[in-house]
């Protein structure tokens, strides 16, 4: 339970990070808050030759508003955002989901981009990014590109990031007038990995439900405004489509049931909020 | 900054419980091991070593952190506090520690140091924390002896004492 040996670079600038990634590619791993990477190091699930620490780069430490989105750079810890005044008005879904990310003790260190780069299928921050149709800002020494959340998450802990790219920031669209947002999850203990997590966005025309913890990545569906039996059918179809499996935490059947129940709960809650915003 | 070589030891300087501290460690050395094996500060316990059990919780720059998920080289220049820094003087317990004693909030004591550090950090930021909030903070720790109820009772009472409010039982040994 101790990491294998690695070199350590406390990067002073973004350029230094990108240069290290260009040179060492998949031999290098980025550490920010360390709450996902260090457990992997301790269990020797990953044995990088070089760890690049980006937490001393001041330009990556502050969230900013840009083109109707809250842009959260790689050095922003979860606690910092949770304490951001007005987050519940700005990005209500994130404000609802962040208290479920790990524990007080891990949120004080862990970053949002770190969770996104790690891409655990049951993690809440990737789920919010998919539900809100956010973007991931990737940068290498050669180019910068923006990838839609739906395209970024490829599979279990697999993303579209190339070996020489850094997850420089994530961009979460801010609250749209007339839209409602809701989040719910089921875990054995608050702060544990969710067995199933659901996030909903509802406006006057459509409803979007994103589900985490079931498929190998957070997965979203868009529907016109449904209710009653039509909504039951849509949720049931989604529950089966996600291909739930049995494991030590829960059976596939229980997971499908959670998708139906929590899915309906968050969609109804978000629809109610959307109506209130209109009225 | 130059790259730190994996096979060598490197000097890391930080503040530990208010005093300057220095360790020489490999880049892979966890802060738990630097504290315990290099500095001899064994109050910080090592449980699961992957951030789940909470036994190694300390504070870094005033916020709680799992020492087992922190590389020692990463705390260069930081303000680190461990359970050894909680008592006001040798032989006297801090308010939180005394409340734990009164409420039998520990049995084997393995998890206690981490829980004390989490609660200490939380109450400094939120002196008016509710029982629900404190329960959630304690939720970041595993305790296999107490069933948690006495820990929650001790935390609630310590919070009231720290706010200067009278409590139901007058503490005799605080």
Automatic annotation (TrEMBL), chain A:
Record PROSITE patterns: FAD_PCMH
Query: Where is each FAD-binding PCMH-type domain found?
Result: 1-177
Any single GO molecular-function term of the entry would be: FAD binding
Pfam families annotated for this entry?
CO_deh_flav_C, FAD_binding_5
Q: Which Gene3D superfamilies match?
A: 3.30.465.10, CO dehydrogenase flavoprotein, C-terminal domain (3.30.390.50), Uridine Diphospho-n-acetylenolpyruvylglucosamine Reductase, domain 2 (3.30.43.10)
**Which InterPro entries does the entry link to?**
CO_DH_flav_C, CO_DH_flav_C_dom_sf, Diverse_Substr_Oxidored, FAD-bd_PCMH, FAD-bd_PCMH-like_sf, FAD-bd_PCMH_sub1, FAD-bd_PCMH_sub2, Mopterin_DH_FAD-bd
Domain of life of the native organism: Bacteria
Q: Which UniProt keywords apply?
A: FAD, Flavoprotein, Oxidoreductase
What's this protein's name?
Carbon monoxide dehydrogenase
Q: Which organism is it from?
A: Methylobacterium nonmethylotrophicum
């Amino acid at each position: 339970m101790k990491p294998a040996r690695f070199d350590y670079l406390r990067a002073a600038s973004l350029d230094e990070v990108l240069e290290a990634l260009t040179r060492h590619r998949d031999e290098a791993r980025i550490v920010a808050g360390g709450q996902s990477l260090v457990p992997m190091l301790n269990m020797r699930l990953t044995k990088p030759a070089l760890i690049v620490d980006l937490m001393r780069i001041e330009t990556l430490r502050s969230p900013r508003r840009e083109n109707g989105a809250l842009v959260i750079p790689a050095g922003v810890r979860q606690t910092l955002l949770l304490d951001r005044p007005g987050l519940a008005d700005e990005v209500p879904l994130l404000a609802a989901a962040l208290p479920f990310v790990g524990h007080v003790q891990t949120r004080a260190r862990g970053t949002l981009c770190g969770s996104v780069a790690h891409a655990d299928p049951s993690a809440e921050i990737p789920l919010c990014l998919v539900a809100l149709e956010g973007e991931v800002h990737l940068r290498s020494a050669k180019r910068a590109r923006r990838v839609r959340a739906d395209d970024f998450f490829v599979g279990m802990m697999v993303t579209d990031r190339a070996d020489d790219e850094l997850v420089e920031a994530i961009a979460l669209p801010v609250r749209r007038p007339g839209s409602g947002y809701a989040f719910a999850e089921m875990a054995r203990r608050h702060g544990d990995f969710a067995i199933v997590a659901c996030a909903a966005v509802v406006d006057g025309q459509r409803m979007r439900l994103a589900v985490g913890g079931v498929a190998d990545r957070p997965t979203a569906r868009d529907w016109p405004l449904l209710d009653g039996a039509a909504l039951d059918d849509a949720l049931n179809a989604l529950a089966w489509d996600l291909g739930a499996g049995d494991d030590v935490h829960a059976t596939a059947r229980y997971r499908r049931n959670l998708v139906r129940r929590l899915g309906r709960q968050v969609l109804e809650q978000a629809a109610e909020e959307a109506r209130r915003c209109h009225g | 900054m130059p790259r730190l070589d994996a096979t060598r030891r490197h000097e890391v300087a930080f503040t530990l419980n208010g005093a300057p501290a220095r360790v020489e460690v490999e880049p892979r050395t966890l802060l738990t091991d630097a504290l315990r094996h290099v500095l001899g500060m064994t109050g910080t316990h090592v449980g699961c070593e992957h951030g789940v059990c909470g036994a190694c919780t300390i504070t870094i720059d005033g916020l709680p952190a799992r020492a087992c998920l922190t590389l020692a080289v990463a705390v260069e220049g930081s303000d680190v506090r461990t359970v050894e820094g909680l008592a006001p003087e040798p032989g006297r317990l801090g308010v939180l520690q005394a409340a734990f004693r009164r409420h039998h909030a520990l049995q084997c004591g393995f998890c206690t140091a981490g829980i004390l550090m989490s609660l200490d950090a939380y109450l400094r930021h939120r002196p008016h924390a509710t029982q629900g909030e404190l329960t959630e903070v304690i939720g970041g720790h595993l305790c296999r002896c107490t069933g948690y109820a006495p820990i929650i009772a001790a935390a609630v009472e310590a919070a009231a004492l720290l706010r200067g409010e009278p409590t139901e039982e007058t503490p005799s040994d605080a």
